[in-house]
Amino acid sequence: HAHLEAMRNAAGDVEQLNLHDAAFHREVIAATGNETLTALLEGISSRTVRSRVWHGLVDSDSAWRTLADHEEIYTALVAGDAALAQAAALMHVHNTERWLRNHLPD
User: N or C: which end of the chain has fewer CB within 10 A?
Assistant: First the structure.
């Protein structure tokens, strides 16, 4: 929850927002206890940071959309609803991938 609050407070600061965004992802993945998933996240983190910064710089609404996605994931986790948390995480990944596909050259 602290990372969500920090993201809200940093919505106008791409660097701070991205620090808390990445921390949120680490916390969620650490909570799964899945060491493979944790290692995978660490392996791609430098690439995702670059795309998060770029996304934040070219799309002024990206912070609020990312925060909304994260709140959906958090709410499902707090409720103990694994299926809903998985669906919310999948939608977050899908939304990010769709944005990237729409903004990257062919």
Answer: C
Is 75 in contact with 92 (CB distance < 8 Å)?
no
Q: Which two tokens stand for residue 79?
A: 């409720």
Residues 31-68: tens digit of each pLDDT: 888 888 888 877 666 666 556 555 555 566 777 888 89
Contacts of 62 (CB under 8 A, 6+ apart): 55, 56, 99
CB 7 within 8 A of CB 24: yes
What local confidence, expressed as pLDDT, does residue 56 receive? Answer: 56
The type of residue at 46 is: S
